[in-house]
Amino acid sequence: MAKSPGHQQDKNHKVEESPVAGTVKASVGGREVASTSDVIAVHETGCPVRYYFARTAVDGKLLQPSQTSSTCPFKGTASYYNLVVDGKTFKDAIWSYEDPYDEHVALKGRLAFYDDKLPEIKITAPA
């Protein structure tokens, strides 16, 4: 792991993590695909709140590794997964930081849903 170049270059950009008190659920078209109290909320400048679920909260049979990856200068390189629910594939619906920068090691291996880009995905979190 390494230090985040983003945090070193932009001291005003915030990426704040906090455990969520209570259960967070993810559903697709009304079908629950994840439910756990092991979730980290990430509040990042210019982004919606993201919920990073423990990998064990999502049924691995619903995940297909994608060829897509992206790099965040603050968190690291993300690997993507397609989500397959009831025969329907949601391309690049989930991502994970397998080797995040030192500042965000708590996110390692967790899964986040693209609920703001895929209207079928809904996240329900305690207020």
TrEMBL record:
- List, for all copies, the residue spans of the domain called DUF427: 24-115
Q: Which Gene3D superfamilies does the UniProt entry name for this protein?
A: Domain of unknown function (DUF427) (2.170.150.40)
Against Pfam families, the record matches this protein to: NTP_transf_9
Biased composition of type Basic and acidic residues is found at 8-17
> InterPro entries from the xrefs?
DUF427 (IPR007361), DUF427_sf (IPR038694)
User: Which residue ranges are recorded for the region named Disordered?
Assistant: 1-29
- Tell me what this protein is called: DUF427 domain-containing protein
* Biological source species: Herbaspirillum frisingense
